[in-house]
Each structure stands twice: as structure tokens, then as C-alpha cells.
Write a structure and sequence with these properties.
Elements: H1 3-7, H2 18-40, H3 44-73, H4 79-94
Length: 95
């Protein structure tokens, strides 16, 4: 697992919701890029900003995950919409 995948707890799938899985994977990739910048920099200020950005991405994922779960529990998004989203995202990433 990459640093970003660990940071967003990608292995914790929250009911295997494809929206959450896609969200976490996308943010994990961004965190990995920021983490790489942090690791390559010797400037303390750059490293501090990278750490802050990573923390904010982790917080954002947690809040987005809660919002998606609440949306599903309230019946706003049904399973067919989740599958459709998953298929669209896969098609876009393959193109």
C-alpha cells in the first residue's frame, strides 16, 4: 500500500460503496504526489505546507465519506446509480 492509500484508509471500504472507493483512490493518488514533493524537499516550509495539505486531504476524505454514506442512507442515491458512476469513471480512466 502506498502512503496515500494508508492515509485515506483505502482498505476500509465503508460497505464497498463504489463512490467512496473512487474518492479514496483519487485522493490517495494526490496525497502520494504531495508526499513525494515533501520527501524530495529540504526546505522546512515546503515540508510543512505538504504536511498541512496531506492532513487537509485526509480530513476532506473523511467528511466526503460521511456525506456519501448519509446520502445513501437517506435514499438519495440508489445502487444502480452507484454502479453507473463506477462504470463511467472506469471508462474515463481507460480513455
Amino acid at each position: 500500500m502506498t502512503y496515500g492509500q494508508q492515509a485515506v484508509r483505502l482498505s476500509n471500504q465503508s460497505g464497498n460503496n463504489p463512490l467512496i472507493q473512487d474518492l479514496k483512490q483519487t485522493i490517495a493518488e494526490i496525497i502520494d504526489q504531495v508526499y513525494e514533493t515533501k520527501q524530495q524537499s529540504s526546505d522546512p516550509e515546503v515540508r510543512k505546507f505538504c504536511s498541512k495539505a496531506i492532513t487537509d486531504f485526509e480530513t476532506g476524505v473523511a467528511w466526503a465519506e460521511k456525506a456519501i454514506i448519509l446520502d445513501v442512507l437517506q435514499g438519495q442515491t440508489n445502487e444502480s446509480e452507484l454502479r453507473q458512476h463506477r462504470g463511467q469513471r472506469h471508462t474515463q480512466s481507460v480513455s
